[in-house]
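Folding Task

Wanted — backbone structure
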Amino acid sequence: MIGARWMRLAAAVAGFTMAAGTALAQAPLVDTRTGAVSGVVVHGVDEFLGIPYAAPPVGDLRWRPPAPAKAWSGVRPAVKFGPTCAQVTTLGVFAGPANANEDCLYLNVFTPKLGGGAKLPVIVWIHGGGNVDGESDDYDASRLAQAGQAVVVTINYRLGLLGWLAHPALDAEGHPSGNYGLLDQIQALKWVKDNIAAFGGDPSRVTAGGQSAGSIDAEALVASPMAAGLLHRAIFQSIVVDGTPLAAAQKQGADFAEAAGCGRGAGADTAACLRKLPVEQILKLQGTEQANGPYVSIMIADGQIVPAGGIFAAFRSGKFNRMPIMSGTVHDEANFFLAITEYYSSPQHPLSAAELDGYLGSFGPAADQVRTEYKGMMSATPQRVRDAVGTDSIVCPQLEINRALAPQTPVFAYEFNDFTAPFIFPALPGFEPLAYHTADIQYLFPLWRGGPKGIAHPLNPQQQKLSDALILAWTNFARSGDPNGPGAPRWPAFKPEAGKPGVYLSETLPQAVVMTDQDFADAHRCAFWGRTRPG
């Protein structure tokens, strides 16, 4: 006897064929829990774009956990990306265009294999953008899916104040609150668990990973009790941070509500006022094209979604979802942010010595210590010095976290070191891109360029060889929790012990090589940053 769901799919296929004609009958079709979807075939990969994974978070659903998507009848075309989530800050050329879409909770599935046989590993990719901007549209996952034989899911999630807002009036409503964008990601993982087998994926081998803010979100998912059982491996690709304490985030939220004209109350009337605000007013208070405003939190230690003591404390105490973890950085993380500064400067100009001195002064009581530590670099360009100081202060905490996690769960650590990586910004006077933050994305997602103002570049043959190796490593890791395998670089697990260093993979040209974590620590002055906590 044919099951009810297959009968529904057969009817949907028949209706689709009648409506669209026999020329479109070969479009890939999948029956999800909420209805049938038809995709497109691109370079041998079946793509299903713009599938709703939750109800639109509008009206009374604003600043609430995502509700399940409503079912539909017939076949839903899944041939174009869903709307980008509301955003105003674009981080130079990283994101955009600015928009006011609240109905944006859609995902995309790229699969090389529909139906029958063994199921493929699944990678759920969380885009970066400081949790204030970005979108899934520019991440072409077809090569990752085809070359790596994996199912790749890319998602949109609520951003900025719509995605991360703690406020006493909202937090008192009895639902998980504050980290609404993270709740969206958890909802997407639930959708994957329920539906991905129909796309050829294995729901018992789900990797959640992302770059920059996507890395921060992935680490939060590993720490979150609400994500338990929904992911089985994690990728932290550039930057980990701890959550903002709830009290501090709630103060930001109360300040925002007052600035928006809703007062500082903590009752239902204030919550109602917030939900009636025009989204354009929220975005105006969120920031500008160039920078965030004072009310924005990237991640909140709310005590229910994210542990109250913070993500790092959860990792150190062992109170997290145990799974293999890939964790790494790029050699020049800070250079991306320097590029943003120069991009918006008028006239555009290289960082000056005076601007560098002002930056060093921002370290407060530790400023003189920082100047002394980097005194030997002062003959280099101000950009090189600024990049070194900023990068080292970012990457050393991730080394600490890798060392804290390694005794508890498998960890594979790396640094991306291709200094020839194509630069997505337009040419900037006197600027040296080096291995800048975001440079590695285009090695996994071909022609990635950030937002519409970014510049896409094909990789040269050497870079393409490195890209091939990284795609195999990433998908091997999704498959087994171990990135090693034919064609992938030799990558020992990170296991530092007393008297024995741990091993990092250096992703460089002409091919990836290994180095010790002590090499990494020395290059980035991690001993200094371990004893220096800038004020």
Summary: The longest helix spans residues 382-405. The CA atoms of residues 53 and 427 lie 39 Å apart. Residues 1-25 have pLDDT under 50 and may be disordered. The longest strand covers residues 201-211.
